Amino acid sequence: MDKKKDLASKLRTSGLRPTKQRVLLAEFLFNRDKTFHFTVENLNKAINKKNSDYKIALATIYNTVHAFKKAGHLKEIFIKEGKNYFDTNTSSHHHFYDEVNNELTDIENNKIELKKFPTPPKGKSIKDVNVIINIDNDNQKH
Amino acid sequence: MDKKKDLASKLRTSGLRPTKQRVLLAEFLFNRDKTFHFTVENLNKAINKKNSDYKIALATIYNTVHAFKKAGHLKEIFIKEGKNYFDTNTSSHHHFYDEVNNELTDIENNKIELKKFPTPPKGKSIKDVNVIINIDNDNQKH
DNA sequence: ATTTAACATATAATGATTCTAAACTTGAAG
DNA sequence: CTTCAAGTTTAGAATCATTATATGTTAAAT
Ligand SMILES: [Mn+2]
Ligand SMILES: [Mn+2]
Ligand SMILES: [Zn+2]
Ligand SMILES: [Zn+2]
């Protein structure tokens, strides 16, 4: 199978041994058409659902997700306390956050343009910019 | 003392009894010229430092901060895992985040202007927009 | 002054994440 | 093909921020 081989080399290139667990997680996360946003809790449930042919320990899921992040294959996104999202889109980009469904949607960088722009404090320079647009159902009372 | 009386009415108006602990915390947080960004850990240390004349239980600090937030006197800001900031500036505004010193700086709303702007998904409307500009020391290697 | 709901507090519980230490796997070398 | 060391997985323990509990205290209305 081609895809599996590709993933194995992707992992090796990142200095990660392509173990069974890592390849399975990489398949699940990276063999997709669209960006995938998830929490560790999410991922754990999806992978270890009953009747699944293969189980991965929660510690391994943590280890792997962090290893993938360190290797640049995942981005971490902070939205709210106790909700740590990871993102398979590692490009610099922005998000809609739907508070009703706890869902993230990508906004590509070129869809947002900052007109005015503040000067960073002396001795500091801008590393990156994150825009989160919180969205609600229409006609929501505040 | 005028300031104390003001705080007591501010609390009463919010439906909060002006207890000794709340008044003390309100003084510490709100009798300032500038915006104050803090974590609960921060606040607890500042209030309960040794040789301080009055101690407040950690649970009370949590309760009070959450009560102040609910009453609209504090805003909560999510920057990274395990770092929950609160903000005495409750207006809609943005931030610089200095990753080196773990420090937030306000950017007033009118200092940033979004030129291009994406359309929210169908049935959803924008509640608010949060921009975080991560900053680094100059000449930092990535 | 009495009364009662609101509040503060010490302590226990929770829950997400990290650590530990033992067993297993991978890939390189012989 | 074996051997071997470093890397990896795992169950379970530990950690740590936060929240819940249960008891004593206080604000403020009557
Ligand atoms: Mn993490
Ligand atoms: Mn909180
Ligand atoms: Zn994304
Ligand atoms: Zn602020």
Could you describe the 3D structure shown?
The structure is a homodimer of 142-residue chains. Chain A is 31% helix and 26% strand. Chain A is of the alpha+beta class and 142 residues long. The first copy, chain A, has 2 domains: 2-85, Winged helix-like DNA-binding domain superfamily/Winged helix DNA-binding domain (Arc Repressor Mutant, subunit A, Orthogonal Bundle); 93-135, no CATH class. In chain A, the strands form 2 sheets. The first copy, chain A, has a 3-stranded antiparallel beta sheet with strand order 1-3-2. In chain A, helix 1 (2-13) crosses helix 2 (20-30). Chain A is globular and about 50 Å long. In chain A, 17% of the residues are buried. The mean pLDDT of chain A is 91. The A-B interface holds A 76, 78-81, 84, 96, 98-99, 105, 107, 110-118, 120-121, 123-138, 140, 142 and B 76, 78-81, 84, 96, 98-99, 105, 107, 110-118, 120-121, 123-138, 140, 142. Strand 6 (124-137) of chain A pairs antiparallel with strand 6 (124-137) of chain B. Chain A binds a DNA duplex (30 and 30 nucleotides) through helix 2 and helix 4.
CATH architecture of the largest domain in chain A: Orthogonal Bundle
Strand order of the largest sheet of chain A: 1-3-2
- Main sheet properties of chain A: 3 strands, antiparallel
- Global shape of chain A: globular
* Oligomeric assembly: homodimer
Low-confidence stretches of chain A: none
Structural class of chain A: alpha+beta
Q: Please give the most extensive interface between any two protein chains, plus how many residues each contributes.
A: A-B, 40 and 40 residues
Question: What order do the helices and strands of chain A follow?
Answer: HHEHHEEEEE
Strand content of the residues of chain A, in percent? 25-35%
Under CATH, the topology of the largest domain in chain A can be stated as Arc Repressor Mutant, subunit A
